[in-house]
Amino acid sequence: MPIYIMISTLTDEGRKTIKKHPVRIEEVNREIEHMGAKVLTQYAVLGQYDFINIVEAPNNEAIARVSIELGSRGTIQIITLPAIPVDEFIKRMS
How much is the pTM? Predict the structure, then answer.
């Protein structure tokens, strides 16, 4: 299944939510699964972004749905990038 990198930044409202209810992160991961995708790995990071997620989804349309649904809540800004495993990339370049 295709892999996507989701880089996200919390809004002021999102930071308030996470501060009050940190387990909300896990709840959102379950919501993502209900939308047909799966968080494989997740990191809270310091710097320009707040989270980096490695997500598996069946196709671009499915991950677009996840990104739009989560972004429409006003608690997070998301950048979604398709990822190609390096071995697959090398095969395609050869």
Answer: 0.90
